[in-house]
Amino acid sequence: MEVEKMDENDWKYHGEGNKSIVVSHAQHSQVLRFLKHNVEDHKHRCQTSEQAQQHIQNIVDFGKHVMRPLLGENYVHHGEAVKLPLDFVRLLSLKVEPERPESRTDKVMDTLSGWAMCLPNLTQLPDHLSEHRPPLCIEIKPKCGFLPWSRHVTKDVKLKACRFCMHQHLKISSGKWKRRSQYCPLDLFSGSKQRMFLAIKHLLEEAQNNLKIFKNGELIFGCKDDVDQKQDLNELAQHLWPYFSPTVPLIQGRPHRKAVLHNLTQVVTMALLSSGEPGDTTEHRRFHPPKSRDHCRTNMLLQDCCHKANRGLPKDCVLSKILQVQLLDDLDIEGIYPLYKRVERYLAEYPEERSRLQLDGPYNESFLERVRRCPSDDDGSIEYAVGKIHQYRVAMAAKDCSIMITLAPYEGDDILWPTLEIQPSKPRFRGAVSILDLDPKPYESIPHQYKLDLQIVSNYLRSVQSNVELASPNLCLNSEDCTLLFHSA
């Protein structure tokens, strides 16, 4: 990247989250990610350029030295920190401001430090892999894929209803969303194609911020932060039909919506279950999480119909990799919070120890060793407390990550790339699977997480006290599949 030749007109708004805003290059497969600040903080320049640089570098180092070794080199792209001309950053901020959702404008892009992250645009594939039609990219934020089993859990409902499903009730009551999503992460992480189809179906019905679909890098489906907006599945089917046209007929000039979405669901499911490696034998090597319930009580019909459908995940697939890191949280926040207080008491007496304990980084090989070698039994030491807190923070990053599945139709016959061929008559795709949004969770956020957990549980118990919730999934799903060829992104 030639920073001295940066032109704001070469970049466009791509999207944003709570803490950062992303712009993409119009010609090259690159994105820049800038930090965001509250308007008042930005006005008074509460963060120096050096602090912004360290913040960005911490994110890069955490991805490179911690999450990449844990999740796999093929899945994680850590990017690099870059210093950009301030004039370019200011003009870019002015250019993208009109495109930002109104609900996000309580924060502004950092235009004072000049620091950003440069990353590959994972909604795109290299030019030689996108031959005839523009690539599709499906972004899924899967959330936590297991129920806690820790002895520290004090509310029995947490052992039966998953965090995501309980949190839905709080988000509805607070006005965050108008409609409750029926999606349950336990279905997606089950390894059962039937349950995974159901999870993706529910994401399509109510995407919220857990599903986005891009076509040639442009968002065509997914939440734009409008709580009243209902996604148009007919319009999505129109966008997707050219990718599945050999197998999807037109009815009165329009593609059959259910058939198009069924094809999409098959492709996404296969991508999530594939290791993307040559000679894939994952069907015989499956990862089974600890013995906790494999279904959520908020979906009682699913419990009756599919309780035997949890097959476990192929050991090297992207969902298995994510779940294994999530499971580092084996104490639950109720077990972590007392350890946090133990560390706080220690720091009050020995404040100089904060740096040695790496509570604020650096995120290097030493930090990863603390995560990997934490004792399993509490000996009352500060080392145990810090090790479990580090494990919890890493697990929380995995619970909040996004999966990017990037696909392009493929009609060639070369076999240089790993293939997963289930039904040759179906469309074939080249694809790459990646994981992003792997920022380190601040040590200081633990009290907030503890209070939020209490709030989620109490709100859920109040909201279901007078209502028995019954889900009614359509379990009559076919098992036809498409063909995928996977590449390193």
Map the helices and strands.
Blueprint: E1 11-16, E2 20-25, E3 30-38, H1 39-43, H2 49-71, E4 80-83, H3 86-96, E5 107-109, E6 115-120, E7 136-140, H4 163-173, H5 185-188, H6 193-205, E8 211-215, E9 218-222, H7 233-244, E10 250-251, E11 254-255, H8 257-273, E12 286-287, H9 300-306, E13 313-314, H10 318-326, H11 332-349, H12 365-372, H13 382-399, E14 402-409, E15 419-420, E16 428-436, H14 446-464, E17 483-486
Parallel strand pairs: 16-17
Antiparallel strand pairs: 1-2, 2-3, 3-5, 3-6, 4-6, 7-8, 7-14, 8-9, 10-11, 12-13, 14-16, 15-17
Helix pairs in contact: 4-14, 6-8, 7-8, 10-13, 11-13, 11-14, 12-13
Fraction in helix: 25-40%
Average the pLDDT over all residues and give the rounded result. 85
Low-confidence stretches: 415-424, 469-480
**How many alpha or pi helices?**
14
Give the total of domains: 3
User: How far is it from the N-terminal to the C-terminal residue, by CA?
Assistant: 19 Å
Radius of gyration: 23 Å
Widest sheet, order of strands: 9-8-7-14-16-17-15
Number of strands: 17
The biggest beta sheet is recorded as:
7 strands, mixed
Q: Report the portion of residues in β strands.
A: 15-25%
Derived from helix and strand composition plus strand pairing, the structural class reads alpha+beta
Q: Looking at the structure, what is the overall shape?
A: globular
